[in-house]
Design brief:
This protein is an alpha/beta fold. The protein has one domain: Ribonucleoside hydrolase-like (Inosine-uridine Nucleoside N-ribohydrolase, Chain A, Alpha-Beta Complex), CATH 3.90.245. It is 39% helix and 16% strand. The protein has helices at 15-27, 42-55, 78-81, 103-113, 126-134, 138-141, 162-166, 168-175, 186-189, 196-203, 209-227, 239-246, 294-306, and strands at residues 6-11, 29-35, 62-64, 118-121, 144-148, 181-184, 251-260, 271-274, 286-292. The protein has a nine-stranded mixed β-sheet with strand order 3-2-1-4-5-6-9-7-8, sandwiched between helices. β2 (29-35), α2 (42-55) and β3 form a beta-alpha-beta unit. α1 (15-27) packs parallel to α12, α1 crosses α13 (294-306) and α10 (196-203) runs antiparallel to α11. It is globular. The two termini are 26 Å apart. 53% of the residues are buried. The chain binds beta-D-ribofuranose and calcium ion (CA). Beta-D-ribofuranose binds next to α1 and α7.
């Protein structure tokens, strides 16, 4: 079997984060999972990560991290993920506690011990920014940062995507860090929707976790459809950041310079993608993912669910 890409997942589960963890557990070598406040407060995103690791039978280390953004006030997303952060299914209480509460030092230690690892953040970038601030040497030790965030349009505001909008100062530090960034923005992630037919594929993929995961997608899609007039289902945003590393052949991309707006009155949290071809443009710092083969990607999600243990 080909060597699997080594990843550290930093997440705020979150319906789509849950699928990202499941897909990474199947197709990558997950060196650890860290949690951040975002879709829900930190205690809930950590509890949800514990639940999802149980679903996929993973014993990878789990550490909670930042309970609030660097500067911004903490704001969560119950309007899309429910009060628990992962409404829509009944899960058993998680079997194990988190292994620690210092995600930042766990990230630093794990990267130093595993040069070449990818960081895969799918929530606000607070933990990642703090790790890079404490240990700038990480930039040279990682392969890069494959993140879900930003895009060519917004969702939390007209210009800002939720993960970046939650902690723009952290996001700005990450994009400016010198690390190689792979960006799964909204213009990409809205190409992979949990349509009703796909939800049925999830339900029938596994006797135990299939119905639970289908319940998550039904709730997530119901919320998206209630808030928008052009969605067939919820986008599986966070999975893209994992598949971009494990199955890059399913993506189209462009190399761009991306900066995060932190001051704008109506553009705070915007990822400003420089599409210009002027010779004086800033050097590209980001692989901006533009297209995804969503049927192929969804098949991989189903394959990952099938690999979950029978409990
Ligand atoms: C992002 O915000 C959260 O709602 C999702 O988990 C995803 O990471 C999409 O804007
Ligand atoms: Ca997320």
């Amino acid at each position: 079997m080909a060597t699997r890409v080594k990843v550290l997942l930093d997440c705020d589960p979150g319906h789509d984060d849950a699928f990202a963890i499941i897909v990474a557990s199947k197709f990558a070598e997950v060196l650890g999972v860290t949690t951040v406040a975002g879709n829900a407060p930190l205690d809930l995103t950590t509890k949800n990560a514990r639940i999802v690791l149980d679903l996929c039978g993973s014993i990878t280390p789990l550490h909670s991290g930042a309970g609030r953004p660097l500067v911004a006030e903490p704001i969560h997303a119950a309007y899309i993920h429910g009060e628990s952060g992962m409404d829509g299914a009944n899960f058993s209480a998680p079997s194990r506690p988190a292994d620690g509460t210092d995600a930042v030092h766990f990230i630093i230690d794990t990267v130093r011990a595993n040069p070449g690892v990818w960081l895969v953040p799918t929530g606000p970038l607070t933990n990642i920014a703090l790790a890079l601030r404490v240990a700038p040497d990480l930039v040279e030790k990682i392969s890069g940062i494959s993140l879900m965030g930003g895009g060519r349009f917004g969702n939390r505001t007209a210009t800002a995507e939720f993960n970046i909008w939650c902690d723009p100062e952290a996001a700005s530090a990450v994009f400016d860090s010198g690390a190689k960034i792979v960006m799964s923005g909204l213009h990409l992630t809205h190409q992979i929707m949990a349509t009703p037919a796909r939800i049925e594929m999830v339900r029938s993929a596994h006797a135990v976790v299939g119905p639970q995961l289908a319940g998550l997608l039904e709730f997530f899609s119901k919320m998206y459809k209630s808030l928008h007039d052009d969605f067939e289902g919820a986008p599986l945003h966070d999975v893209c950041a994992v598949l971009a590393l494990t199955h890059p052949q399913f993506f189209g991309s462009s190399e761009r310079h991306v900066a995060v707006e932190i001051d704008g009155a109506i553009t705070r949290g915007m990822t400003v993608i420089d599409d210009r071809h002027v010779v004086s443009r800033a050097k590209a710092n980001t692989k901006v993912l533009e297209t995804i083969d969503s049927d192929a990607a969804f098949s991989l999600i189903v394959e990952a669910i099938r690999a979950c243990p029978e409990r």
